Amino acid sequence: MIRTLSVEGYRSIRDLTVELAPLTVVTGANGSGKSSLYRALRLLAEAARNGAVAAVAREGGLTSTRWAGPPRKNSPVSIRLGFSGDDGGYAIDLGLPVPSTGSLFNNDPEIKREVLWSGPLLRPSAVLADRAGPLISIRNDRRLEPVLEAVAPYDSMLSEYADGPLIGMRERIRRWRFYDHLRTDADAPARRTVIGTRTPILGHDGADLAAALQTIREIGVEGELDNAIDAAFPGSRLGVDDDPDGLLRLTLTQPGLRRPLGAAEFSDGTLRYLLLAAALLTPRPPELLVLNEPETSLHPDLLAPLAGLIGTAATRCQIVVVTHAAALARALGDDAHRIELIKEEGETRVAGLGRFEAPAWQWPKR
């Protein structure tokens, strides 16, 4: 489980270290930095897929994504991201590139430093792998030994070097799941029929919703999906039908209606709830599942059933919910660790937390 998340120099976040719990809800007013914290988590996930540099470039490069306030004296321009748990941690430092004559990619950031360590805190004796510039060192018995192969400034050591601890961390991060692009408009992929194949993990766009829900019904916890439907839409029954071509079609039978509704007829809120149910009741829980503004399009009456779904899922995996909805945060109850973000003089801070009250954290130096 991730216990500490730290971000420095990213958008409105100058220096922020927060504690995470099995269930964490991130709240705050518009513009307080919730999206920045969410994107920072996604950037960390991209590092394991060798996509952190490209992700920063897509956001406009370091010029657009770095801390927008006054720079610290004698500090290099950088975006630093890291996390740790009882079993270890990882940190990455992205900085300005060395200009190359004739290159059209001089706006790409470079990876200046990466460190992987065991235990909750970064200590020299706990370092398992260390990347400084192009050079990687791996712990062998009691000391770090350099690896002969150099790594390119735009490549992460997690993806480029096949060593036991690095592979373990890479696969761990790659199993994180993020849901923030679940469309519910008239042309949403989730409204279409889908090939009938077992789908234990809902796709990022929800196109395989019918297959994912049927998979939960067949190999998930018995009755859990039906209970979630009844909690949100009392007396209703979810159906998944197949046709001769092997395509699956979602239906919802509701009290008082003479025929079931097809997915194309679902309200945006109904479809959103079904998508979230498929993500949260997955028969193959990840280590970390992150939901960004799950309340979008939901009727207020659906927030309590959604909170129940999230609470159930949090018994199987770690969950972070980023939300504007105070009602959802309240519905999650005292079992959720709440982080309220505020903005002071342009800087994202945690409400009620002084600068010297944050969890312990140590950045690797360049």
Automatic annotation (TrEMBL):
Pfam families: AAA_21
InterPro entries tied to this protein: ATPase_AAA_core (IPR003959), P-loop_NTPase (IPR027417), RecF-like (IPR014555)
Coiled coil, from the record: none
SUPFAM superfamilies in the cross-refs: P-loop containing nucleoside triphosphate hydrolases
Gene3D superfamilies, A to Z: P-loop containing nucleotide triphosphate hydrolases
GO biological process: DNA synthesis involved in DNA repair; double-strand break repair; SOS response
Keyword annotations of the record: DNA damage, SOS response
Keyword Signal appears in the UniProt entry: no
Residue ranges constituting the ATPase AAA-type core domain according to the UniProt record: 23-325
A GO term, aspect molecular function: ATP hydrolysis activity
Name this polypeptide is given: ATPase
Organism expressing this protein natively: Catenuloplanes indicus
